[in-house]
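Let's study my pick:
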Amino acid sequence: MRKFPKAGLLIVTLVIPALIFALLKLFGTNHYDLPYFVAEKDGKGSVIVQSGDTLFHKVSAGCGIFGGVNLDGRLTVVSRMPSECGEPCERATDELERIAALKTAIPELQVLLVATDTVRRGEWQSVKADSATIVSCFTKELTDAAKGSDALNGRAGQIVLIDRDKHVRGCYKAGDGEETDRLMAEIKILDYEKKNEK
């Protein structure tokens, strides 16, 4: 007689979680939204809000480092690397190689390395510019005040992710393996969203 309550309890503890999982799998959707960075500002430096939503800045080709780079419909990773930072920059270029390896699965991914001098060659496009142009471009076009400061990014510089619509979608510390893992995951998320657009 006492076996039935135990069997019933066992069935309830095993079947209900499996049923919940099956319902979520069938009717639920997993969705991960990446934030936007670099809000659009007016002439006074105030963030522009339109219809209750913040407008976000679209990167323009006129900032000096994107002259020969096509940003339209491409996922772009931009790395700013200072000259002569030694071992941190070596780590940063190794991490760029990991990112560039995603190009086999995501052909529209382009990796752009911006520096004031010649840098180690790899599976990326190098852009040489003077430091004033680089600083101006990153300050006006690519840097989020909270995420993109030099103090946060360290000696190896920073990496910025630009989506297909030319919006900045992430700022990362160059040369940091965990940051690179996060960047690579977010590139895959943007690629997945594009492939599953309806």
